[in-house]
Amino acid sequence: MSSAGRNAKIAREYLKAIEQGATGDAMARFFDPNVVQEEFPNRLVPQGARRGLSDLLAGAELGQKVLSSQSYEVHSEMENGDRVALEVTWVGTLKIPVQNLPAGANMRARFALFLEFRDGRIAAQRNYDCFDPW
User: Fold this and answer.
1) Cβ atoms within 10 Å, residue 48
2) Is residue 100 one of the residues assigned to a domain?
3) What is the 3-state secondary structure of 9-73?
4) In this structure, is residue 12 part of a structural domain?
């Protein structure tokens, strides 16, 4: 495969792995060991967050306890060298109650996701998550 489109393909594979419930090494393979993820303030994380690899892997484990399923619909993607920008709709079906949503309810959000790659792995990730009202 030529280098053009390579990182966007990896980004889509990353979202698919999340949908399929990847944890541990199956998730770690997408990340540079020194990855930094920033989640900007939103309804679930009002102060925002900054996470490294161990936090991202712990978050994947937590997701398995909170969600019975989740999906991403990619609306647009742009790749420029080692950078990929995605606009997606995320839907997660709750396994447990969250705030005023009961187990079995769907949470929906529109995400703007910006990824920076180093040697085919995600080195930086920035999330701008906009949740539908609940």
Assistant:
1) 11
2) yes
3) HHHHHHHHHHHCCCCHHHHHCCEEEEEEEEECCCCCCCCCEEECHHHHHHHHHHHHHHEEEEEEE
4) yes
pLDDT number for residue 44: 92
**Residues 59-108: pLDDT tens digits?**
999 999 999 999 999 999 999 999 999 999 999 999 999 999 999 999 99
Task: Residue 69: give its domain's CATH number.
Answer: 3.10.450.50
- Copy the structure tokens of residue 57: 């892997």
Q: Structure pTM?
A: 0.94
Within a domain: 48: yes
- Residue 26 pLDDT > 90: yes
How many domains in the chain? Answer: 1
Q: How far is CA 133 from the centre of its chain?
A: 20
Residue-range definition of the domain harbouring residue 46: 6-131
Residue 102, C-beta contacts closer than 8 angstroms, at least 6 positions apart: 94
How do strand 67-80 and strand 49-51 relate by DSSP bridges? unpaired
